[in-house]
Structures are given as structure tokens and as C-alpha cells.
Specification:
Elements lengths: L1 H10 L17 H19 L4 H7 L29
Helix pairs in contact: 1-2
Length: about 90
Amino acid sequence: MQYIVLQPLNLLEVSEKYDIKVNLGGGGPKGQAEALRLAISRALLNIDAECRPQLKAAGFLTRDPREVERKKPGQPKARKRFQFSKR
């Protein structure tokens, strides 16, 4: 996961230049790592807008669009159904 987080810094060869301290919450470890990679990429853009083509080509500026499906009424979860009873 550290490799995923450090990808934008290593791409631009500035990993020794910045110290990063972050608090994360929600999701799993992989989702948190990818969200942090996006945050670092956006922060690097704020510092230097000239690095945008490199980050965009590597796919570090794309947000994962998936979201949790809502729970439906009369069901225990979003897609799970209560056990069917014939009698």
C-alpha cells in the first residue's frame, strides 16, 4: 500500500522533498491508499500545475466513481433477501 501512496511522488521524483502526515477513515486499506494517492496528486497540482500531463497520463487524477448501493426497504441489505419460506 505504501507503493500505491508514493507513486505520484516517485513519478515526479520529489519523494524526498515533502513530508506527509495524514489521518484516514472509512473504506478498506486499498481504497484508503488509492484515495490518498489522489489527494497527494491534487496537492502536487496545487504546488506546480506543470506536472499535470504526467499525473494525468499515469491515471493518478481519476477518482474511483463507485459508491455503496443503498439499502432497500423490506430487505436486510442492498441486494440480500430474507430467506424464502414455501410453507
